[in-house]
Amino acid sequence: MIKTRGYAAHSGDQPLQPFNFERRTPGPGDVQIDILYCGVCHSDLHTARNEWNNTLFPSVPGHEIVGRVAAVGNAVEKFAVGDIVGVGCIIDSCQHCGSCAEGLEQYCENGFVGTYNGHSMGGGENTYGGYANNIVVRQEFVLKVPHTENLAAVAPLLCAGITTYSPLRHWKVGPGQKVGVVGLGGLGHLGVKIARAMGAEVVLITTSPAKVADGQRLGAEGAIISTDAEQMAAARGSLDFILNTVAAPHNLDALLALLKRDGTMTLVGAPSEPHPSPDVFSLIFKRRSLAGSLIGGIQETQEMLDFCAEHGIVSDIEMIPIQQINEAYERMLKGDVRYRFVIDMDSLQGE
């Protein structure tokens, strides 16, 4: 076993605190990784505070991991000691169902194993995530990091990046399309960058006029203030696709009205309480679609990393030491981050 230091929540109403635990000794197909950076996702907060009522305590969050390979099993062929690699939201799946066969491990029909708060395949032990100094992962779920600079800003791509890339790719966003991105947070700011890099005309949809200038800096060519009835009315039927990144319950009908005939709005934000049900007439009269999307498979995540490296896309981040994680959660709830916290795991050295 490998001794590991990290931070964990021990109940939903307690702050995260230092936590010592053990990882498995690498098997023949395993990769042992020294974690350099880990992004802070809203899902981390939901899980640490048991807001989805499914947390296995103690919980070590973190699934936006960039690190350096420290050891490999004797059957590992894809990676070598010293490689810079990434680990996202999934560390195992059944590998034999229809979805896994198509490279869609996130939809594994037997249930994928989450990087944290998941049961290992065939076992009952809790998985511990990236708020730690190391991790051991099967080589099939480790990703090559093609970026050579600003590795801390690459970390959020392992969740926020693939969460926005996958639906944009699946619904074939590209040149000649007008795409709305709802919300300019950890997900939305990457959605703007990636949709623009795909060649679409991007429109930011936000409740905050103060975010318009930043949306334009990131690549949005226009903006709609969703609380302004005149702007919303003027934009009706103007968008081919909407990527909705907001993780709080809100009225979907007003946004659906912005779509053209046959347009789709895809939800990627995961609120702790449901959205109000949309009016069916918002859908049937223009043959609009309301869809959802969950992260991405391993092959697509590698494709996303390569695409972002090619186009110079990384997350806008604020680096923090692990000792500030509880403060970061509170700031995240207030939207006080531009646009993703990333933990420098070197800060664990003093624990």
TrEMBL record:
Positions of the Enoyl reductase (ER) domain: 12-343
Gene3D superfamilies linked to this entry: Medium-chain alcohol dehydrogenases, catalytic domain (3.90.180.10), NAD(P)-binding Rossmann-like Domain (3.40.50.720)
One Gene Ontology term of the molecular function aspect: alcohol dehydrogenase (NADP+) activity
UniProt keywords, alphabetically: Metal-binding, Oxidoreductase, Zinc
Cofactors: Zn(2+)
SMART domains, sorted: PKS_ER (SM00829)
Pfam families per record: ADH_N (PF08240), ADH_zinc_N (PF00107)
Family classification: Belongs to the zinc-containing alcohol dehydrogenase family.
Name of the protein in its database record: Zinc-containing alcohol dehydrogenase superfamily protein
